[in-house]
Write a structure and sequence with these properties.
9 helices; 246 residues; globular; binds NADPH dihydro-nicotinamide-adenine-dinucleotide phosphate; alpha/beta
Length: 246
Amino acid sequence: MRFDGQLVFVTGGARGIGQAIVKRFADEGASVIFTYRSSESAALQLEADLTAQGKQAKAVALDVSSHDAALAVVEAAVQERGPINVLVNNAGVTEDGFLMLMEESSWDNVIDTNLKGAYNCCKAVLPAMIGKRSGVIVNIASVIGMAGAASQTNYSASKAGLIGLTRALSKEVGGKGIRVNAIAPGYIATDMLEKVPERIRRQFIEKISCGRFGEADEVAKVALFLASSEASYIYGQTIVVDGGMI
Ligand code: NDP
């Protein structure tokens, strides 16, 4: 069990990619705290299922865009269970639209969740990680943050920002025993992709070398790798997991 005795904190863990990440870490012996915002019943169900299997998982409510709430939730987790070994910033949203027509609230919500949310959670976990000179942060970015996509300026900017945050924070804390990396998934079959009209999804598939959407677990396995000692010399990188899309 590669993560026996380790405390892992995953944002947005009740469904989609986050849920797959929670399950992978719990399978590997970690004690996993995962957050939810609106999916309370799915979160409690996941906690109950994993606990019934003899694994360690706890769901906590958190809107990652709230600076004070993120600090308070992480502080409570550290008080209860000790320093967090691994943070996975997974929570994310889309609110698509052409920039000329985009409401300010759509811009703010996407940036505040996808980018500021990661800042909030990194800030919250770092003091304890620096204190024991060890820790890993994995940020879930997107290939859209590298390639851009029409009607996704807010999302593209948030994920490009997250890739920049990853590089910069790695330089800031790499010398203090903390590894910060990111994953840039392509199109993964989750609720987020379900929001895209069928006609557009068919166009997406044509751009993917392997001819299919990815599975959430195919991202989770890379998160596990980046958090493990097998990735001990990987700092500040963004690993593309996109079936050959970009
Ligand atoms: P889903 O829409 O399935 O899940 C989104 C998750 O984010 C949910 O768990 C949701 O929690 C959580 N979340 C959203 N807003 C907040 C918030 N303000 N505070 C806390 N949690 C929040 O998406 P995916 O699983 O597909 O996406 C996971 C990550 O992967 C995201 O960062 C996304 O941008 C990224 N990604 C996804 C791709 C895809 O094709 N699916 C491709 C590339 C990147 P709740 O349900 O409790 O509200």
